[in-house]
Amino acid sequence: MAQTVFAPWNDPQAKPLIQFKNVTKRFGDFTAIDNLSQDIYEREFFALLGPSGCGKTTMMRMLAGFENPTEGQILIAGQDMAGVPPNERAVNMMFQSYALFPHLTVWDNIAFGLKRMNMPKDQLNARVEDMLRLTRLTKFAKRKPHQISGGQRQRVALARSLARAPKLLLLDEPLGALDKKLREETQFELMDIQEKTGTTFVIVTHDQEEAMTVASRVAVMDEGRIMQVATPANIYEEPNSVYVADFIGDVNIIQGKAHKTSADGYDIAWAEGHEPFHAKTSIQLDEGQNAFIAIRPEKISVSPDKPEGAVNAIKGQIVDIAYLGNVSTYHVRIPGGLVIKAQAANTRRLSRRAFTWEDEVWLSWTLTGGSVLSE
Ligand code: ATP
Questions:
Q1: Which stretches make up the ABC transporter domain (predicted)?
Q2: Which of 239, 238, 215, 216 is nearest to 227 (CA)?
Q3: What one-character DSSP code corresponds to residue 160?
Q4: What is the CATH number of the domain that holds 181?
């Protein structure tokens, strides 16, 4: 059986779990969220990504009910949340600092919320045991928070947030306190738990790699607005703006003037006396319009001689090399002074000549190697 791709946002029949409808949030005369509309679907792992102060936490706090929109509506499962207090929403929020109760055991920390809702004892016990199994904490159940590791504490907080089986779990920088290795492991655990429980997760993170790893869709925000929402691959391969291209990963941005050459082909004249770069795009640009080509470093080949038949090729000089183990990034100055980053895998083949500082090299990329952007 063919595996069906999870993409409810492409299904016109799918009903969103969360709907932001023209939501604006002002603090005094400062606009933190600016007329934002966005649907999020059940079972999604939706990541909010953006620079500090762009409004990520404000969106989460409005979902949880700690803040009210100044204008617009937020619906959860079709119900308008206006006036619905946090404890009456099928939402749980795991905060940046997921304070556990230090005097309670892991077991009691997880049981805490369930006791408060007066869940019958046998049901409560079973639920806590389930959560312990899910987060692989069964053998730590009797320990106190200071007797377990940072990653384990993080899992306790997650178990506690999931215990009441919220429809929606909001995670604000949930892995912020973990070191890189543990953080990466925990990302996979989060994905696994999300899949097993079928809970919808909305996560806020500063870390773009994290967002790209865990999310079904990523929303890139800037100043209270969503600039682009797409799958991680689309955000990376088909950014819709210079802002998004620049925010996600490493990218070379070359500015020029557009000249249409075919239905979907453009020449981008980037420097006088040099052949324009050629690119394919579905966007429409006016003749002579200012445009940009965004090219990821790994899409650019570095070679000692001009590659035969290359669609885009330009000669330059290596000014810097960053050795990153499995790959090296070459910084190559091209005519006009622009420095282009090109990434090449380091193979062990001795026959392959390594480049060094001040070498003259050719950079080349294909017709679809770069994205054309209008602004
Ligand atoms: P970070 O990544 O740094 O946590 P963020 O994207 O989560 O940032 P928010 O916390 O949502 O940002 O804040 C968005 C903007 O709204 C910021 O400029 C912040 O200063 C402002 N803001 C947030 N809460 C309030 C408040 N209660 N009163 C006034 N301004 C606020």
A1: 18-248
A2: 239
A3: H
A4: 3.40.50.300
327-357 pLDDT tens trace: 889 999 999 899 999 998 877 654 455 788 8
| pLDDT, position 1 | 46
Task: Specify if 2 maps to a domain.
Answer: no
Pocket test for ligand 1, best of 23, 26, 56 (most atoms within 8 A of CB): 56
Question: 54 CB less than 6 Å from ligand 1?
Answer: yes
Task: Tell me if 198 is assigned to some domain.
Answer: yes
Same-domain check for residues 26 and 157: yes
Residue 349: the pLDDT is: 55
> Residues 211, 49: contact at Cβ < 8 Å?
yes
> How confident is the model at residue 151, as a pLDDT?
81
Q: What pLDDT score does 352 carry? A: 54
Cα 54 to averaged position of ligand 1 atoms, centre (Å): 7
pLDDT value at residue 351: 43
Spacing, Cα 213 to ligand 1 middle (Å): 25
Q: Is the CB of 61 under 6 A from ligand 1?
A: no
Q: Are 224 and 236 in contact (CB under 8 A)?
A: no
What would the two tokens of residue 76 be?
A: 């959860």
Q: How many domains does the chain have?
A: 2
Q: Identity (one letter) of the amino acid at 116?
A: R
For residue 35, the CA-to-ligand 1 centroid distance in Å is 16
Which regions of the chain are under pLDDT 50? 1-2, 350-351
Domain residues for the domain of 220 are: 8-243
Q: What is the CATH number of the domain that holds 359?
A: 2.40.50.140
